[in-house]
Amino acid sequence: MIQSQSVGIVTPQRVLFDEPLVLKSGSVLPSYELTFETYGELNADRSNAVLVCHALSGSHHVAGHYADDPGNIGWWDNLVGPGKPLDTREFFVIGVNNLGGCFGSTGPASINPATGRHWGAEFPFITVEDWVTTQARLADHLGIERFAAVVGGSLGGMQAISWALQYPDRVANVAAIASAPKLTAQNIAFNEVARQAILTDPDFHGGNYYQHGMVPVRGLRLARMIGHITYLSDDSLAEKFGRALRHGKHIYSYDIEFEIESYLRYQGDKFSRQFDANTYLLTTKALDYFDPAFEHGGNLPAAFARCKADFLVVSFSTDWRFAPERSREIVYALLHNRRNVSYAEIPSGAGHDAFLLDDAHYHAVLRSYFGRMKR
N or C terminus: fewer CB in 10 A for the chain? Predict the structure, then answer.
């Protein structure tokens, strides 16, 4: 077997869509751009395409690195590449920056052609279903009628599920990893606290901070710190940091004393330099809105009745943000409709972030499924 390796140097691509997009909210975008990357080769009958959907802070940059920035490695590089579970010797893999994002696709930081200014707070609300619609248009642009699989973790898993609901004839397999059919009240609460941190930042300026030459850094830092706590398990935090003190003793200060404080502040600072506040607000609301059963009186099996795809559902034992029982709701809804579904609950101490990490058991499950799935 060829040793696993990176896809190497990659180059983002952009495509402009001039056809108006009617969003689920009723708003209309007259045009928009999507930024995407591809890995591997599309085969002659175009049957080997796999779409990878990103989570809240992800992007189109799934694997490989850039020629001018070799340290910028794709967020799922350990999964996608030659000899890896999603093997680019066999599959043509596509990663897309979601509409409303801040890594190249049209979003709040883009210029609104109607005003000549940044969209800012005027950028319309978007939903998971809207993202899937734009991804389908990108597939049309690339000449792909049907995906061999749509794959995603967390919010990406919600998009993968929505593909099976919106376009049942255009996807053969769905891999929903560390995901859920809707957010719990607790999850919505965490998102709201994070949003309030941004909305109440004096530098937010009602979402139009671009015109003021500012970034709501304090709000973004707090939002990321809050979110990051929920992505990790108590066990992983204890193992990494415990109650370790930076100075070896208590200094009775509001400055950094515990190593976990240092870690959270570092993550918050890093995120505030890379991510757009309005994109964060829009994306967390899209998470909150996702609920396929809502239009079926809360009946999830009824929502899944139109699915035709085979499913792989993966959860992680210590993921309390998207707990295993939420994944099992998806499994039960599929079984109710006599769909083919494989389920794996991976023992892991890493919490929600486990779907991004190297784990032999987890990767073996994915490798096995991708190696035998129908097309």
Answer: N
CB 50 within 8 A of CB 170: no
Kind plus residue range of the DSSP H or E element containing 153: strand 149-153
Distances (CA, A) of 194 to 37, 109, 219, 310, 365: 30, 20, 8, 35, 34
Tell me: is residue 224 an annotated ligand-binding position: yes
Residues of the chain with pLDDT under 70: 1-3
Closest by alpha carbon to 266, among 221, 308, 229?
Answer: 221
pTM of the model: 0.97
Q: What is the pLDDT of residue 374?
A: 84
Separation of alpha carbons 293 and 302, rounded Å:
7
For residue 223, give the nearest of 181, 283, 180, 288 by alpha carbon: 283
Question: Is there a contact between 183 and 289 (Cβ–Cβ < 8 Å)?
Answer: no
Specify the pLDDT at position 3: 63
Q: Quick one: which H or E segment has residue 288?
A: helix 277-289
Q: How far apart are CA 304 and CA 312, in angstroms?
A: 15
Count CA within 13 A, CB hemisphere, residue 179.
31
Calculate ∠ Cα 154-46-57, nearest 5°: 20
Residues with a known catalytic role: 154, 319, 352
Q: 307, 325, 322: which is closest to 355 by C-alpha?
A: 322
Per-residue model confidence (pLDDT) at position 1: 44
